Amino acid sequence: MQTLASATRAIGAIAPDRHFGKVAAVRGALIEVEGLLGAARIGSQIVIGSDEGLVDAEVTGLDRDVAHCLPFSDPRGVAAGSRADLAAGQSRLRPADGWLGRVVDGLGRPIDGKGPLQLGPEARPIKADPPAAASRNRVGAKIETGVRALDIFAPLCKGQRLGLFAGSGVGKSTLMSMLTRWTDCDVAVIGLIGERGREVQEFIEDDLGPEGLARSVVVVATSDSPALMRRQAAWTTLAMAEHFRDAGRDVLCLMDSVTRFAMAQREIGLANGEPPATKGYTPTVFAELPRLLERAGPGGPGQGSITGLFSVLVDGDDHDEPIADAVRGILDGHIVMSRKIGERGRYPAIDLLKSVSRMLPECHSDAENAVRMNAAALLSTYADMEELVRLGAYKAGSDPAVDTAIRLAPAIENLLKQTKKDRGNAEQDLAQLAALLETPA
Fold first, then answer.
1. pLDDT tens-digit series, residues 64-100
2. What letters, b where the CB count within 10 A reaches 16 and e where it falls short, cover 285-317?
3. From which residue to which does the signal peptide run (predicted)?
């Protein structure tokens, strides 16, 4: 028995076989590797030697003896014939509480200069399946965001997934920074996918601040990162949120933006030879979106929740473009931001009449719903008559409902104005709106 045990230990100490191949061709961002037949798998990690160091890559496609790989960094220095080693396993993370207050890249490596990360006891895959539908809890109670327009007209609940739809320069990032600081949660996991490099430090120092960063993990893949790193950063954001959710915490997961994740997936699909479909987006884009977004939401029994806020950068202010349309059908509500409202000077520039929370009307009381619906009706009436009023074509007294809307709509709009330092209070704001609606003529 002792001899058998010794032999078992000796065999266990032997390093496993190492598979390696060589670079056959480099076509744009795509690196073709030969010699890994039967060993390479979709998602396998590859380490490629180059004149400027090692390049990490991932197998994204297979064609007979050729593995199609995309790099996580600039493949400069890679040549035909370069050695490509197949790493063991697929990308995994070992997050822990020590990750709070840290900034990492799409592979979970620290980029904030604060030293190595604490490793948790359990490794989890970066890309994981959503929880089974039948085993999930229901969406929880309403949570306060501090943004008056949302707390009154499109409230957010624990475990809900909400989309922020806006064109460029409408204030989407500013609104997300307000939600990051003010929304009630245990942990915040923030994914900055394809963001401008200069905005990362501004977001961390000005928008999050020391207090917000202390309860947050920030995942960054800037716009100059390869497509694979941008996609991986989105998966890493959800993987870390799942770690804290499984530990029983209520997580706020923000991602800016889902559109850039879709663009990264489009680049990957096109590089692998997928046919372009709607507006150049490949079929896998529309398959990956629900797999990503469904990972947020309520957990199972004994677990916490992931409340998801996902921004969508609508192309040319077209809110019916393919990504916006697909995401809107997956999430539990959508917040539409309007350039026209921003040009009028009302920020956050949320279009209340086009924004929807699918948690309504249950998450408001009957009294709160009555106030919300009365205010929305006034704003709708005013929007219908606004042009006539400005042109002087409407005569006061012609319609009492229009007269009331003209009198109260500007006051409602003024109530909804906020800056980054002006945090709302849902109970007080609803009371103030109710008193405003009862103001006599």
1. 889 999 999 888 889 999 999 998 766 789 999 999 9
2. bbebbeebbbbbbbbeeebbbbbbbbbbbbeee
3. none
